[in-house]
Amino acid sequence: MPNNRRAAHGRNLRRGRRSERGRAYLITTVTRDRAPRFMSMGHARAVVMAMRQAEAEGMCETLAWVLMPDHLHWLFVLRDGDLSVVVAKVKQVSAREINSLERRRGASVWQRGFYDRAVRREEDIAAMARYMVANPLRAGLVQRVGDYPYWDAAWL
Questions:
Q1: Residue 145 domain-assigned?
Q2: Which has the higher per-residue pLDDT, 124 or 154?
């Protein structure tokens, strides 16, 4: 996608976005050019550590996540701050570590923007988390969900 279309797409993702403390959100964010960066354990670990850092700082409470080869699905409850700030922090921290592993400086790891879905209170979060972490199975990456290394649903 050309840069001007990419920027417009990023703005469209933000249209109508609200941050509500105590609300669960399902986030999807994609690597730059859909590069399959997370086939590497070191790269995947960088994203996991960034999510844990955001949680440790009281920004969110992670319910479930799955890191696919080229994107992240993350279900969490917003605790403090703005939704965009939480996601930006995870992307920045993980990109810094990934660039360090690749011995690069300032290279883009993630595409701009992210998709978010505010979870309505009446929705079944456990069913949503189960569906989300089964993505590797549906994508044909594994024969059983438990065989895929990059997911967690501790909340279940």
A1: no
A2: 124
